[in-house]
Amino acid sequence: MPTAQLFGAGLEQAVNRLLALDPDTPQALRPLQGKRLSLDVRELPWRITLAFSDRVDVQMGNDDSDADASVTLSLAIAPTLRDNRQLTQLIKAGELSVEGDLQVVQQVSQLARELDIDWEEVVARHTGDVVAHTVFRQARQVGQRIQEGVQRWQRTISNAALEEKPVAAHPLAVAHFSDQVDCLRSDSERLAARLAQLENQLNDKA
Amino acid sequence: MTDKTAVDNEQTHFGFKQVDKDRKAAMVADVFHSVAAKYDVMNDLMSMGIHRLWKRFTIDCSGVRPGQTVLDLAGGTGDLTAKFSRLVGEKGTVVLADINDAMLKVGREKLRNLGVVGNVQYVQANAEELPFPDNHFDLITIAFGLRNVTDKDKALASMYRILKPGGRLLVLEFSKPEHDWLNKVYDMYSFHILPKMGQLVANDAESYQYLAESIRMHPDQETLKGMMEAVGFEQTSYHNLTGGIVALHRGFKF
Ligand SMILES: C[S@@+](CC[C@H](N)C(=O)[O-])C[C@H]1O[C@@H](n2cnc3c(N)ncnc32)[C@H](O)[C@@H]1O
């Protein structure tokens, strides 16, 4: 079984499916038409080449390819590539090496960054509007609470650190934090129950 | 057994049968006329989808660039053409050539539905006498086509002629499994299971019996490599896929 090709086929499917979810993709791909970007990922045994047209074709192990740009990186920093400002820092730090047309790399990074997927609509296509809307509203609420919790915790920690110098959290802060975690846990449990209920309703209808 | 030993001047084989040379093309045409509509489904079924990976491997070895001119010979329903069309871009050209207009039609329709238009041409042509100028293509691929061609040496010479200096030929074709046990499993599969699947899905056991036989009669890896060298190809090599059930041969014209 040609493993590299299996990997390439999977990657290509995933990338194009993801791109197809954003209606602005054709426009975003336009500046990249006809360009090729090759990736040497340290953890993978093959070079990956991305060829851009009205979609993305993935070629594997193509060592005689004269790509417009080639990038060497490790998987760990892949997520940060979406941030153009970090590109230069990563290059300076030696985490990322780029040869060829830097603009192509920036355009690809931009493509990833601007990918704007309306997940609620994607889910709605499978479940119907009402369910998707309810699920996403609740998920947003939970997400917000988590964020608030984390922010509060960060504030507490930094205050504690400032006031008490030793970096360990103040017992009061820890107690406060556990309270918040409890509160969050019961929130998420309520959400789970609500989801189960919705699912039942859906099954009843079906 | 190689083609050369099995063929005398007037006769050639059609699967395991011996037939008059001038009838083989027509008989092959019949086979593909009758399978054209179900061709893609059968391909997926017969190979359990692995043919897609074999084709991807071929493309990965093609070194194809934007702006190039590519011939997908015996291209049938155009699997390779679709991808080449995107890879050569607006300034490039892909010619999908096949001897059989029923296959070409299915191919054209499929590609149109995929949105592949503009840089693809469709040409009905016999691989033995290719109707293209000398030194014309950067790349020629022939995937699962060569074994159906009556005079393979003539076809290879014809491909050599129309390839640009520096251009490359890729032949993807069934070949000889590297291991005995695989050979046995594979025989059993292609002579017993395959024709039954052909009967069930395409209602056409005979055509698939022919496919199985034609696979067995096709030259093995070293023989085909030698045939390519005999007509002028250089730096020839092959790569076995899936244990040698399929091999990709590569040769350059300099
Ligand atoms: C098994 S199909 C392969 C199609 C396609 N390349 C693929 O891989 O899916 C073989 C094709 O070879 C074509 N063919 C057979 N003899 C030929 C010849 N002498 N010249 C050109 N094409 C030929 C048939 O019409 C058929 O479409």
TrEMBL record, chain A:
InterPro entries: SCP2_sterol-bd_dom, SCP2_sterol-bd_dom_sf, UbiJ
Localization, UniProt: Cytoplasm
Predominant localisation class: cytoplasm
Keywords on record: Cytoplasm, Ubiquinone biosynthesis
All copies of domain SCP2, residue ranges: 15-112
The protein's annotated pathway: Cofactor biosynthesis; ubiquinone biosynthesis
HAMAP family per UniProt: UbiJ
Similarity-based family: Belongs to the UbiJ family.
Function summary: Required for ubiquinone (coenzyme Q) biosynthesis. Binds hydrophobic ubiquinone biosynthetic intermediates via its SCP2 domain and is essential for the stability of the Ubi complex. May constitute a docking platform where Ubi enzymes assemble and access their SCP2-bound polyprenyl substrates.
Name of the featured protein: Ubiquinone biosynthesis accessory factor UbiJ
UniProt organism field: Fluctibacter halophilus
Gene: ubiJ
TrEMBL record, chain B:
GO annotation terms (biological process): methylation
Pathway annotation: Quinol/quinone metabolism; menaquinone biosynthesis; menaquinol from 1,4-dihydroxy-2-naphthoate: step 2/2; Cofactor biosynthesis; ubiquinone biosynthesis
Binding positions for S-adenosyl-L-methionine per the UniProt entry: 77, 98, 126-127
Record SUPFAM superfamilies: S-adenosyl-L-methionine-dependent methyltransferases
Known EC number: 2.1.1.163, 2.1.1.201
Keyword Endoplasmic reticulum: no
Gene3D superfamilies: Vaccinia Virus protein VP39 (3.40.50.150)
GO molecular function, one term: 2-methoxy-6-polyprenyl-1,4-benzoquinol methyltransferase activity
Record's keyword terms, sorted: Menaquinone biosynthesis, Methyltransferase, S-adenosyl-L-methionine, Transferase, Ubiquinone biosynthesis
Entry keyword Methyltransferase: yes
Catalytic activity: a 2-demethylmenaquinol + S-adenosyl-L-methionine = a menaquinol + S-adenosyl-L-homocysteine + H(+); a 2-methoxy-6-(all-trans-polyprenyl)benzene-1,4-diol + S-adenosyl-L-methionine = a 5-methoxy-2-methyl-3-(all-trans-polyprenyl)benzene-1,4-diol + S-adenosyl-L-homocysteine + H(+)
Protein task: Methyltransferase required for the conversion of demethylmenaquinol (DMKH2) to menaquinol (MKH2) and the conversion of 2-polyprenyl-6-methoxy-1,4-benzoquinol (DDMQH2) to 2-polyprenyl-3-methyl-6-methoxy-1,4-benzoquinol (DMQH2).
Family from the record: Belongs to the class I-like SAM-binding methyltransferase superfamily. MenG/UbiE family.
HAMAP family: MenG_UbiE_methyltr
PANTHER family hit by this protein: 2-METHOXY-6-POLYPRENYL-1,4-BENZOQUINOL METHYLASE, MITOCHONDRIAL, METHYLTRANSFERASE
Designated name of the protein: Ubiquinone/menaquinone biosynthesis C-methyltransferase UbiE
Species per Swiss-Prot/TrEMBL record: Fluctibacter halophilus
Name of the encoding gene: ubiE
